[in-house]
UniProtKB/TrEMBL annotation:
Annotated organism of origin: Planosporangium mesophilum
Protein name: Uncharacterized protein
Length: 131
């Protein structure tokens, strides 16, 4: 997890606060992924299984995301987050968590009212599955 964090921390701007860091998977892709949400930004890192190369997969301000949806996936052990990036690419992430209600509450506070995204309130601590 450490290499992912060093890349993700560079995505947090001054005055922004990280509200979620968790392992995740990307539909139709292999490798290890880590998702970070701040009050203003979504960033995802990817690590290739074979080469172990780490790269920034996605790094966008929340206002540049559209068609955001999420749903608890009890069979899969997490919360599915789907977003469309500014370039029109649709992404589907499964956030690994044992606290799906907490993640859903957090996502609702970030995405429910686009005029009030920066007033998220309390940071929710999320327990990752398998951690």
């Amino acid at each position: 997890m450490e290499p992912h964090l060093s890349v993700l921390e560079r995505c947090v701007g001054p005055g922004d606060a990280t509200v979620l860091v968790a392992r995740c998977s990307l539909a139709g892709a292999s490798g290890r992924y880590m998702i970070m949400l701040t009050r203003r930004r979504l960033a995802v890192t990817a690590r290739n299984w074979l080469t172990r190369r780490l790269r920034l997969h996605l790094n966008l301000e929340l206002r540049h995301l559209s068609d955001v949806s999420w749903a608890h996936e009890p069979r899969l052990g997490g919360v599915r987050l789907s977003v469309t990036a500014i370039d029109g690419v649709r992404e589907h992430f499964l956030i690994d968590t044992t606290d799906a209600v907490g993640v859903e509450h957090l996502l609702a506070s970030l995405f429910a009212d686009p005029l009030d995204r920066h007033n998220v309130g309390e940071v929710v601590t999320i327990k990752a599955s398998g951690a």
